[in-house]
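input
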Amino acid sequence: MSLVRKFLREENVNLDMRGVETCQQAQDLLFESLRWDDRVVNFDAFASALITTPVMEEGGHGILIAHGRTDAVRTLIIAAGRLGGGCVAVTDATVPLCLVFVLGIPNASNADYLRTVGIIARACRSETTRSELLAAPTPEEFISVLSRVEKNI
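output
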């Protein structure tokens, strides 16, 4: 089974994030989808461990990847989101924010973490793949796009 399919569940893919005015709001909205996930041992500790990286700019699209290394999650865990309408100008980024990813990483899962972040980064850097992520009609298709990238690594 691919890492993406193993750690990114359809219920943790939000393809219509609305009401977002800042990167922090986007991250928080997506992070909240993990609150009751059975892989999260301690939501508050996970929240405390979360680090927001600067928004990546790829082809005029902003991509936010927030991650936390913590034993507050049982396994690597991913949530992914797309801003409603495709991309949204936010007050704390220089490019419109389009895609958001939140990852929780157990302290002992270095290899899976590095590979998964690499898959996400590679998908977002490719104009073709990024366009597919922005156009994916369903969470399943969104996950399939990332899984295809993984197969080509």
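quick obs: Helices lie at 3-7, 23-32, 43-49, 110-125, 127-135, 139-151.
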